[in-house]
Design a protein that fits this description.
The chain is α+β, with helices and mostly antiparallel strands. It has 2 domains: 38 residues; 58 residues. It is built from 3 helices and 3 strands. The mean pLDDT is 78.
């Protein structure tokens, strides 16, 4: 029983509907304005990735375009992205190091002004 998302052509807001039979015609109404002018949206999906695939993604230089090694905020953003990509909780130590880097970046900006 899939859940489909639809965008209302009148108000532009999204509504989700549980569709019991895929082949049956759908006659929904916008949950926000009641309009019947709905367009089905392409939904996001999850994909299970191997550890090797996640590491290859991190090693891809094309994804490093916004990293500036002289900017602690940029490095901090990359570290957070790396943590999410690993798919595991890297522990309080990791989070503390990232937060300290962000604080150091903020102090550096205050000193420059």
């Amino acid at each position: 029983m899939p859940i489909y998302e639809y965008r209302c052509e009148d108000c532009g807001k999204k509504s989700s509907f549980l569709v019991l039979r895929i082949g049956a015609p759908f006659h929904g109404k916008c949950a926000h304005c009641g309009s019947k002018k709905l367009v089905r949206l392409m939904s996001r999906f999850a994909m299970i990735r191997s550890e090797e695939s996640r590491l290859e993604s991190l090693a891809d230089p094309s994804k490093w375009g916004d990293i500036d090694e002289n900017d602690p905020k940029s490095i901090s953003r990359w570290m957070k992205k790396m943590g999410k990509e690993m798919g595991e909780d890297l522990g309080e130590d990791f989070n503390q190091i990232v937060e300290e880097a962000e604080e150091e970046a903020a102090k550096g900006e205050e000193t420059e002004e």
